[in-house]
Amino acid sequence: MTCLLVCSALLTACSKKEKPLTIKVQNTLNINRDFETVELSKTFLKTESLDNIGIRNTNTGNHVITQTVDTNDDGISDEILFQPQIAANSEITYEIVTNYDGVGLQAEDVCYSRFVPERTDDYTWENDKVAFRVYGPTAQKMAEKGDPAGTLSSGVDAWLKRVSYPIINKWYKETTEGTGSYHVDTGEGLDNFHVGVSRGVGGIAIKADSSFYFSKNYTKWQTITNGPIRTSFYLEYESWDAAGYSIIESKIISLDRGNNLSKFTLSIDGVQDIYAGLTLHEKDGEVTGNNDFGWVSYWEPHGDSELGTAIVAPKNTFLGFEKYDTEAKDLSNAYAHLKVENNQVVYYAGFGWKKSQQFENEEQWVNYLNTFSKCINNPLKVSLVE
User: Fold this and answer.
1) Distance between CA 278 and CA 202 in Å, rounded?
2) What are the Cα distances from residue 162, in Å, to 40, 73, 289, 368?
3) Measured distance CA(79)–CA(42) in Å, rounded
4) What is the pTM of this model?
5) Which CATH number among 2.60.120, 1.10.60, 2.70.98, 1.10.3210 corresponds to the domain 112-377?
6) CATH assignment, 20-105
7) Domain coordinates of the chain in residue numbers?
8) What is the torsion angle, in degrees rounded to the nearest 10, for the CA atoms of residue 17, residue 22, residue 23 and residue 26?
9) Terminal Cα-to-Cα distance of the chain (whole angstroms)
10) What are the residue ranges of helices labelled H in 82-145?
């Protein structure tokens, strides 16, 4: 009898130990959600390592695409990412699978970024929808010496791609080798978006005495992750002056698969609010905004097509929007006024190009912004199933 009791206890203990960890993802909105990224930390999953971890949909039995991220550059993955496809007002459970070898689940790294020394010192990023770049210290020094090949700007450039596969390396290679130019559209898109000293798509400014002040080019960079779900990287700026305010600025920018907007997580000392801007180019477009949903947008004719740019921020961050129109070259921008809390502010900036066939008109672009706002203000709820 004693032996039977011991065996029974051991079987019960083993059964409990081997029970797989399960999580529940809930969508509380009346819309389907496909390209939102869930981040699971080691602490949340109660594991010491994310190596060989898989995530399986318990309804279909299929494993989902995942990506691990080392957030603090210590060589150890801290988070695992995935993008659930979840219907309106519904929930899905997922099993956390250990010792998963990933066989049969291949995914292209469509979310990609890198430093580009062959083009001065750009930093460029993209996903399956959009692409961007910013400019570094060498480009700044060249511009300050009067070299026309230099660029002095902390604005964000938009690369208008209309294919879902990566184009950064291809476009730079063709341009540097002289076999093509990313300023010419041969079917994949092009860079015909002028930035100059404007804010481009999401560059920041400080407003003081009705004037706007900007930083110069980034001074340091670090790639954090590339993969099938997310690219992210760190940029740092030399401290700068805004009407007597000493500003210390750095940011982490990330772009997830299926999204037209990059996420900017800005760390800033010296001010309690900032302005994130959108260049008005020829000033022949329309500035619109929605304080309830927390966005500002600029829809404009662009080349042989049309282009929408936008900034979206959480409702508790978005203080309003304004149009700044001046005769000074490249200084006319639409601005989102954003609140800084604990030296940090988060916002999203990006674009939709009509020629990419993602958006046919301004109405569709505005609908996208409203939906995007609903999602960031009502994130998917993730919990452990006990």
Assistant:
1) 6
2) 32, 33, 26, 18
3) 6
4) 0.94
5) 2.70.98
6) 2.60.40.1180
7) 20-105, 112-377
8) -140
9) 32
10) 137-144
CA 302, CA 98: separation in Å to the nearest integer? Answer: 50
- DSSP code per residue over 218-278: EEEEEEEE-BSSEEEEEEEE--EEETTEEEEEEEEEEEETT-SEEEEEEEEES-SEEEEEE
The residue-averaged pLDDT of 93-109 equals: 86
Contact 308, 363 (CB under 8 A): no
Asked if residue 101 has pLDDT above 50, the reply is yes
| pLDDT at position 197 | 96
pLDDT at residue 1 is higher than 60? no
What are 345's strand-pairing partners?
266
Decide if 282 contacts 300 (C-beta within 8 A): yes
Distance CA 191, CA 182 (A): 6
Is 342:262 a contact under the CB 8 Å cutoff?
no
183 within 8 A of 157, measured Cβ to Cβ? no
Any idea what DSSP says for residue 169? H
Alpha helices in the chain (DSSP H): 2-18, 42-45, 137-144, 168-177, 362-377
